[in-house]
Amino acid sequence: MIVVANTPSSSALDESLVERAPGSGWRGFPVQLWFSFWKLFTNPFSLGFAIGLPVFMYLIFGTSSEAQEQWVVNSNVSAIVLVNMAVYGTIMTASSMGTNVALERTSGITRLYALTPISSGALIAARVIASMLVSLIVTGIVFCVGAASGARMESATWASTLSLIVAVTALPIALGLACAFGVRSDGAFALTSASLCLTVTGSFAAGMFIPLEQMGGFWQSLAPYTPFYGLVSMVQTPLFGWDSFEWGWLGNYLFWMITFLALSIWAQRHDTGR
Question: Of the candidates 74, 110, 138, 157, which lies 20 to 30 Å from 26 by C-alpha distance?
Fold first, then answer.
């Protein structure tokens, strides 16, 4: 006795394929977000460097009696040094995210992502948000050290400054991702090191370590066009009063943010072809 299995016809299979809706490009976003956050948070070297170096520099330059006693609008000078060093710590966190992407590219993980339904925008967003969450932790720890060692701000200034630092961290993250995706995979590590040099140079040029008023005329004229100028200036706004805010700072930030983010998404989409 021969049993004939009931198999669907080719036309029925074609209809089922046509009726099946494509999956959303954001379907795997929560998993990718957790993976990116945990990978960055559990790296003791990058996290320790992002916390230890800003704290070390703050303790050197921001804990003198003069800095603690001299008061500006909403904080003392020690708090200004603390905020600048906290911003530098978040930039180091962003550089670590770029390094992680470089590792993924050399190991072939990014090619596996290309086989999944998750979109390039979702991958970029997961990495940006994960790095911002780690930046929140880093900034919170640095602020706790500063509050215990002489940095003083108004109560609302602590909260607004912390929120601004975490929010504007998206810019150095986008810069790190653009550098990590912007070259061939065999040169990713070299360019990631170059991006670290760029972030350090950009931090100096934006007045993060030395006030622009104490720098030469060349740097003062160049600073408004550097990527971190608007970032640093906006973060310092709660310390000097909101009436000191300038729209040019926001324009500088948005220009570089959109530029680096667009480069990141474009390079992510073309990554498998290089």
Answer: 138
